[in-house]
């Protein structure tokens, strides 16, 4: 019996999804979920654009995990999965202008407006600790 490609991909990426949802980050899997969450989120919202790449595994997700241990954190925590939940990711990216699409990446929004963004190229060559430090600085600035 062979496994379908869709089931294979679902099984392969589930641990990558779980790494963020275990932290209390809510997945937004459809454009409707994105639309219901991002523009009207009062206060601050962290949006992690998840990915299957090595820099997501080695730097982005661990950096987010470390940053969320900080005393000050965003009011809302969301994630979309690039390459998996394509329509939801495209809808979320509409809120991240002027930044071009990249994954992984991390957005911090305040009252529905983008206030801080970490692009893929800022993830690739940095450690999880450096990403966490940048996020905690942004949390201190915008989440009080």
Protein model, in words:
This is BrxA/BrxB family bacilliredoxin. Belongs to the bacilliredoxin family. The protein has 144 residues and is α/β, with parallel strands linked by helices. It has one domain (1-143): Glutaredoxin, CATH 3.40.30.10. It contains 6 helices and 5 strands. The protein has helices spanning 5-21, 31-37, 54-67, 86-93, 120-124, 128-142; strands at residues 26-27, 44-50, 76-81, 105-110, 113-118. It has a 5-stranded mixed β-sheet, sandwiched between helices. Helix 2 runs parallel beside helix 4. The chain starts with a helix and ends with a helix. The relative contact order is 0.20.
Give the key terms:
single chain, 144 residues, alpha/beta, five-stranded mixed β-sheet, 6 helices, 5 strands, BrxA/BrxB family bacilliredoxin, BrxB/BrxA
Brief synopsis:
The protein has a single domain, classed as Glutaredoxin, CATH 3.40.30.10. It is built from 6 helices and 5 strands. It has helices at about 5-20, 30-35, 55-65, 85-95, 120-125, 130-140, and strands at about 25, 45-50, 75-80, 105-110, 115-120.
Which structural class fits the helix and strand makeup?
A: alpha/beta
Provide the number of structural domains: 1
Per CATH, the superfamily is Glutaredoxin
Give the CA-CA distance, first to last residue.
Answer: 55 Å
Rg: 15 Å
User: Fraction of residues in helices?
Assistant: 40-55%
Strand content: 15-25%
| Mean pLDDT, all residues | 96
